[in-house]
Amino acid sequence: MIKGLKFLGSRVPIYYSFPSRHAIGYQFELDHFVDTVVGRSEPFVTEKMTLAVTKIATAAEEAAKSGEVELMIPPYNCPSITKSS
């Protein structure tokens, strides 16, 4: 210990696991899921989002298996990657 310095300790708990660090987020996600199931809310995730993520995951898996780059075509028009004429 350095002379003249006093150890104050940590006032914030240290969380070691992913679920313990994100417990509030999981609770919000579960609450939203229940609200969606009972009809009080619309899902945050759309069918298009689910389709896009599935295609990305599948392409990543195929690329890992083959060692080759997988070319992906967006499932719908995406303004950030659409070329202007």
Please tell me about this protein's structure.
By secondary structure, the protein is mainly alpha-helical. It has a domain of 36 residues. The longest helix is centred in the middle third of the chain and has 20 residues. The radius of gyration is 23 Å and the shape is flat. The chain starts with 17 loop residues before the first helix and ends in a 19-residue tail after the last helix.
End-to-end gap = 67 Å
Please indicate the percent range of residues in DSSP E strands (runs of 2 or more). Answer: under 5%
- Helix fraction by DSSP (H/I, runs of at least 4): 40-55%
DSSP strand tally: 0
Tally of DSSP helical segments: 3
- How confident overall, as mean pLDDT? 78
Q: What's the short version?
A:
By secondary structure, the chain is an all-alpha fold. Helices cover 46% and strands 0% of the residues.
Structural descriptors:
3 helices, mainly alpha, 85 residues
Q: Topology, please?
A:
Blueprint: H1 18-21, H2 23-37, H3 47-66
